[in-house]
User: Fold these one by one.
Assistant:
Number 1:
Amino acid sequence: MALIELSKVGKDYASGPEVVRALKEVDLEIGAGEFVAVIGASGSGKSTLMNILGCLDRPTRGSYRLAGVDVSGRSADARAIVRNRLIGFVFQGFNLLPRTTALENVELPLVYRGVSARARRRRAIAALAKVGLADRLGHSPAQLSGGQQQRVAIARALVTDPPLVLADEPTGNLDTRTSYEVLALLQALVRDRGLTVVLVTHEPDIAACASRVVTVRDGRIQADERTAEPTRAARLLEELGGAPE
Amino acid sequence: MSSLRLLLSAFRLALVSVRKSGVRSLLTALGILIGVAAVTIVVALGEGATRAVQGTIDSMGENAFTVTPRSVARSGARGQRVPPLTEADAAALTEAPTVRHAAPLLSSLTQVSYRENNTAAEIYGTSLAFFDIRAWKVDDGALWSPEADSIGGSVCVIGRTLVQELFDGGDPVGQLLRIGRATLRVVGTLEPKGRSPFGQDQDNVILVPLATMRAKFYPTAPGQIHRVLLSADPEARPARVTEEITQILRQRHRLPDGVENDFRVRSQEEFRAMQQQVFGVLEVLLLSIATISLLVGGIGVMNIMLVSVAERTREIGIRMAIGARELDILLQFLLEAVLLCLLGGLAGALLAALAVGGFGQLTGWDMRVSWRALTVALATSSGIGVLFGFLPARRAAALDPIQALGRE
Ligand SMILES: Nc1ncnc2c1ncn2[C@@H]1O[C@H](COP(=O)(O)OP(=O)(O)O)[C@@H](O)[C@H]1O
Ligand SMILES: [Mg+2]
């Protein structure tokens, strides 16, 4: 059973009197442990697809099964619970709460899960340690570099141990080195923990790190190819040379 | 998640958020502070005044009445002027079936001294019945004798304040007091009654037989008195007692039908009704002003919360994306509003307590912020928080996560 099963999914937006058909008849299956890159021109429908995969939005047509459960028609609250339990989000703009420490940011998903304060703290510290920020617990986002902020965001996405991480252009605001670092982290998670990652990107070198590349064009899936040998982001970092951060 | 836990974590979030927006929280709470302070002060003043009125009325004695003269143009009155109210009137009133005691009263202010100590006090000339009507009890010594009661004598009974001021707490019974130009022996002292609710010292009094008063301190036309104090059967209806008193006095004063009474009868009940009516009107008036200021404060809170929701749209989007449900967001903002109002309310209650305390000190009235006033104030402020926080909170909870995330 695939983790993600989209069948004939369509999404329309009302834009004034006109209807924008952002997605048309999308069929897509993604298995557990896959690392999928979604590429395509701006406006092709990548974010719309990610919003539906992330249960932030509902498809206008078609069905979406996540971990075997049809979530396409669920209520807002039911989808909030699905997001909390099954999905971790990494955004282009990091989307950390301002004036809030890294630790508190990472604890947040556990708050909505009803985890006790002590367990929350313990798990958040562990997640931050895993992304190499054990010494930045009390820093607020403003006190962290872009790469560090994105790593806090990844820790927040992982703290609930979700099977799926969705990342919409996570390296869009990062320089090359930091991008590779984030990517190396994601690759390691896929390799070590069997995490499933779906990542939107514009950059071919980033897409080359994925085990599978899905090309979206005009609201349809134009191409869907497995990469024989994905680039290891760790190797890209080595090639970059120089001192690490 | 249990609902208590949900509430607790929402409360914690609200606390954090209120703390993080310091100055703004303060300003928002200020509106509520003023409103709550106003309400609390008004309630405290109302309660204090009610207590005062109640105390004054109760100190009149049980089922008590007073008769005072009332000036009217009397046609056909010639020669010697008849005093409007006399000792004989008081005596005659004891004949009324429902009247138990009647005491004539003359009152005045006087200087009183013992050795080098000197002070001013109120002096009452009356009969022994007075002590029954007012339920004033002897502490040391005794009341004057029945003989002195009818023909007078150089004796007096004094209140606790005079015992303290003139005798420095020593035993006054048997000592001679210089009162005005006369010298009187103290035969008894009274149990302390404390300040009247309006701050008048009820223990700064000298009581003497009526005949003594008239002879030594307050010469009057024969038999004239200032008022008659009466107590009636506790079972008797006030209207009936008044009726009996009126009948007897009209007869004694030879008032033909159609001529107005030349006296006025007031019952304790009447005082109570009259004064409570005045305070009731006042309280309603003040309370409505205070309520308006609370409403203004509440609208301020709603305004700030709406701004806050608009500013924190992205935060709301983030929270929703990572699993906050509508109720989580609703509670967070609702509790934030309630917390703001409660903080303002607490500060307002504190301010009110200070103001009321200061006012009490200044006037000598018995004023304090009661638990009732405090409870009303805090319940009202949290109520305002819920009422005016609901709309902004619902707006926050109804946001679409994608749109909320997309906005800076
Ligand atoms: N909320 C919306 N309302 C109207 N049109 C939208 C909305 N969101 C996206 N679209 C349209 O849907 C299409 C796909 O957008 P999007 O999924 O954001 O593309 P991409 O992420 O690939 O750049 C675009 O034409 C965009 O204008
Ligand atoms: Mg996009």
Note: The mean pLDDT of chain B is 86.
Number 2:
Amino acid sequence: MNINIINIERVAKIYQVGSEEVHALADVSLKINENEYVAIMGPSGSGKSTLMNILGCLDTPTRGLYEFTGVSVSNMSDNELAEIRNKKIGFVFQTFNLLPRSDALHNVELPLIYAGMPNAKRKERARLALEKVGLADRVDHKPNELSGGQRQRVAIARALVTDPAIILADEPTGNLDTKTGEDIMTLFAELNKQGNTIILVTHEEYIAKHAERIIRIRDGLIESDTRISGRIIPNGDSMLAP
Amino acid sequence: MKNYLFEIKEGLLISLKAIRANKVRSVLTTLGIIIGVWAVVTMSTAIKGIDISFQEGVSSLGSDNLYIDKWSWFNNDIPWWELRNRKNLTMEEFRKYKEAAKLPLAVAPTMGTRQTIKYEENSVDFLIILGTNADYIKTTNLDFSDGRFFNELESAGSRNVIVLGSEIAKKLFPRGDAVDNYIKIKGRKLKVVGVLKEQGSWVMGDFNPDNQAFIPIGFLFKYFTRENWGTITINVRAPNSQSIEAVKEEAIGIMRRVRGLKYDEINDFSVNQQEGLLGEIDKSVGVIQVAGFFITGLSLFVGAIGIMNIMFVSVKERTKEIGIRKAIGAKKRTILGQFISESAIICLLGGFIGLLFAMLTALIINQFLPTVIQADSVILAIVISLLTGVFSGLAPAYTAAKMDPVDALRYE
Ligand SMILES: Nc1ncnc2c1ncn2[C@@H]1O[C@H](COP(=O)(O)OP(=O)(O)O)[C@@H](O)[C@H]1O
Ligand SMILES: [Mg+2]
């Protein structure tokens, strides 16, 4: 069963900088199915984040088609896009992007608040998500009371909590040391094993190796799209609760 | 619907968190609101007090009264030197007027003097002693807590009797045994025959009957002043308020005749009326109102600008936060609601502080004026601060709501 989640055709994103046009994405077509684990690779400035923002419905393409879970999002209003982001997409950012004044629980709760879930139910869901990323004992810690790796786990819990169709991670290990980054990658692998669809942006080869498919882009164009054999399958103790 | 309530509640919680994080700034920016709310509540409290006092004071004078006088209470068109050059009203003229007047219920001459009054070691300085006759009481609404007014016989005979206002009686006779005791004025002994019931009005001040004493006018002329040293005032009581104009017409006619004025000469006396007094009071209350609303409006406007400014700063500072919220699904109206409710809460907070100050001020005002904060001015204060908050939050909140999520997330 290959259920299509993402289908973009001939997408371009062009920025007008002064009199010059910057083709952040020149002409990109791409299909991603359910339960895939995709790494998007490329040098800095190649258009990875731009692609990610479009896939995540944070941004709209200048031209081209985008179907998300079989529904065209090209002509959707801001509010409809917000609803899709809220219910179907989980973001993980390089800089964690947690609300600094809120504790871990409230940060994870936030998407459920916007989804209108009642208080008791969403607290329970948020707690479960934090448990899943191994932070059951840190629910009432504020971001500045957590390490970088723990912050990123909170962010992953926040991405997971709505049970989204896809998790988008833009350089999630970029601000972490190698060891902590490796732990986060193990977590992603586990999540993928449990059925989550994951798209990972990175410019580091060894991080990309965790994925089962690597899409390389350069200057806003797809350079290659390969399924890899030498994939790193994390072993050792599972980071996830059963 | 449920979702909206939910969003409002969440917006409020978020706002409280943000406000708590910037306590000092929040309080400082609400200064305008605090002053505005304080001004509007204090002003309406004071005006209410003034209204009540004047109403009380005026009704103690009696609302169907006219006062024939050398002076005009409101020198509308007549220059003051002309008033000064008028002839004094005399007892002779009073008698002629009384003889001729058919319409009034009662008429009485009065003349005041300021004297010190003593009983044993108690004394009251510089109070108004009103000389009049027995009919005076019929021209007023005054009641007695003890005793009576002096009678025809006593006034015609210029006897040494006195009626005390309640305040004077209290000061001279703390034990309340005034009647039948003798007080002293300028060494003259006068017997207290009555004590007036308390009128309880502040605004009338010395002219409040509470702070006056009444003696036969003949006695006054004999020992304390001379008839030709000043003018008398003739108190005229109309049977009812409908007849007051007719009584006035008659009074003017008689007085012109008594004074022998020719048809082309203007009146050299005035017929004063409380109605005019009330109008005058309304005028000054109006001035207070206009000034108060001006101050209120101005400080609220300044307050609103301040709040708007701080909200713009807050939106700018929290650009990243807005980006995060949008990325995880906050809609435009959610962000809009968040910042508007934040601004509304800050203003409400200011409103409550202003209200608190106004309550303290009301306690002070209450020493002088019979008033408390009115429920409607409390509601007004809350509504005003809420509206100011919403109004000044509108533009910053809109800026926040329409931010592009990608740009907002990139903001450092
Ligand atoms: N808002 C923007 N305005 C102008 N140019 C932009 C904007 N966002 C991105 N770009 C340009 O688009 C290109 C791709 O950027 P990006 O997607 O962030 O690259 P990557 O994430 O691969 O480093 C870069 O050349 C960048 O300068
Ligand atoms: Mg990037």
Note: The longest strand of chain B covers residues 106-119.
Number 3:
Amino acid sequence: MYEPLYKSLYRIRRVEEEVARIYPTDKLKSPVHLSIGQEAVAAAMCAPLDRHDIVFGTYRSHATYLAKGGDLKAMLAEMYGKGTGCTKGKGGSMHLIDIDAGVMGASAVVGTTIANAVGYAYSVKLKKQSTIVMSFFGDGASEEGVFAESLNFAVLKKLPIIFVCENNGYAIHTHQTKRQGLPDICGRARAAGLPAELIEDNDILTMHERATAAVNALREGTATGPAFFECKTYRWKEHVGPGEDFKLGFRSKSEAQPWIENDQVKRVAALVPAVARKQIEAAVEAEIQEAVAFAENSEFPDLSELTTDVFHTVSTPAAIQKAA
Amino acid sequence: METTLCIDQYTPHKSASSGAAVASPKPERTLSYVDAVREATDQEMDRDASVILFGLDVDDPKAIQGTTRGLVEKYGPERVFGTPLSEDAMTGVAIGAALAGLRPIHVHIRMDFLMLSMNQLVNVAAKSSYMYGGKVKVPLVVRSMIGKSWGQGAQHSQGLYSFFMHVPGLKVVAPTTPYDAKGCLIAAIRDDNPVMYVEHRILHFQKGPVPEKLYTVNPGKARITSPGDDVTLVGISYMQLECLRAQRYLDDVGVSAEVIDPIWLAPLDIDTIVESVRKTGRLVVVDNGWTSCGASAEIVAQVTERLQGVRDVRVQRLGFAPVTCPTSPPLEAEFYPDSRRIAAVCNDLVHGKSQNWYPDERPELKDLEFKGPF
Ligand SMILES: Cc1ncc(C[n+]2csc(CCOP(=O)(O)OP(=O)(O)O)c2C)c(N)n1
Ligand SMILES: [Mg+2]
């Protein structure tokens, strides 16, 4: 169990470090919201999911995308704006998607995908599929009306969805306590009728265990509705971009220090036998090198791509007639 | 060179209609757009204790590009505060506060996020005065920003002001220069009606003359920013700069463009534009948004309605490509009209057919490029 978890964690960390390293070259003409420090949440929560299960994310979704098995080449090429990117250079880093891996996309408008995930789960239930939907969002998103409205509907319809609030304590530079009169997100989920669990300290093993239990309960039918997790974590880097933001003065390096010392990548590394660890690391490094080269060597999209995809080609008038 | 473009807007010229704002005398001081917005807010908050300022991150270290810098220190956290991520409710809160006599300025770092505020803006703010028979007023300013470049993409780049132009009861302003940024914001704050105040992130970097005193640039007055005879070139928000650059390119081929900045989109000073087109017979409107049902469509329609049967007029609209804004740099470059394309379109319109002329880029007329991260 530790080895796949470590592979997932290490891969996310190293990809994002690589993104941060390349960023100053101006090759990634794209905003990047790194999740360095927060990898444990995506890695642990996605671990019990199958490939056909579905995740919805946010602009800070590199970790979710990778943890769910999203294609690294397509991700990096997207950030380079290349035609081989996962959205052909149209969406950029804030809208990563990999349908084959069950990554259903991400939004730059906070909170929007919470409801979209609920709608997906409604379809799953209607079609009596075994799919589980997982919705990732930040602590800030819980302040949007759509959060309360979505939770209520998910409970009302007993939908197979797991909500994961990645609480890194901040929305950009503003602490949770400056935005929430009662900073208790789990409490609000409970008030909507959800079983809600708070997991402290970015603790990957607890998250993994609890996520596995929740996923199994939905699969086995012992749970008949949504579940909610609030996972406390910490962002090491600035809100957007590759640097740090301690000099801005809204938070201190000493606040970050315990989180950095409690690095879950190191923690899980220590649980993996040295030989296996080396193998995992070598494989990830090779994959990253290959993906960076792929992104760099790929072509920009053809200019004709500008006007494609505005409407989905399947929905041509002819196709619509045929469907009817 | 950007400064030159802006200063040129204040060289004295004759206003086409008596209603148009006449150029102001050249002031001594140069400010950035950001500082002009900040100063207008500061001076109005100082003058009028009922002005309050709030929105996501107005009190954070980056202070909305600097436009709100120092204000929480000066006026305290009761009059200046960051909000939860709750655009819908906070817009309703702003309206309620306005009904009670405050003059809220509600700030959004992206215009795209206003989509969460639509119900309150369209169904309540815009309608209260009318549906309550004039018994209440909603003196509200909603500031929002349009992004461009650096892969800001689908949801961080939209110029959606035409949505608001559509609705009676809302005023809409999109100032281009630091001078107008200050004057329009003061006018908006003093207005007893809801005003949508639209800023473009690229314009934030512009510098230009701004008087220190309080002054207003009033609703419903356009400005002729560069006089000409052959074609009327209307540029909205950031596209005003591209039009002024296009006018320089057109000089090279002997085409004289009259450039107009509408400044206020609602109420719109159509008279100034109509008078110009009556002279030139040609109208190109360049918008910082899509053309379909957009501000450019409205301007062209109003001008044609006014001049049909009076003057033969040729018209052309330019705006975003009719697609979602892509992030890949070459696609994004194709998405936006730029000065050279505008110049080529004007030249063709003047000559009535394709001239196959596309100017070589002049380095001093190059667009500013926004550098990430944002
Ligand atoms: C509706 C909306 N309002 C405001 C923003 C601007 N914004 C972008 S990220 C962000 C903070 C979100 O915080 P949180 O949900 O905690 O996610 P985190 O960035 O911490 O992962 C804000 C306010 C936005 N993108 N969408
Ligand atoms: Mg957060």
Note: The mean pLDDT of chain A is 96.
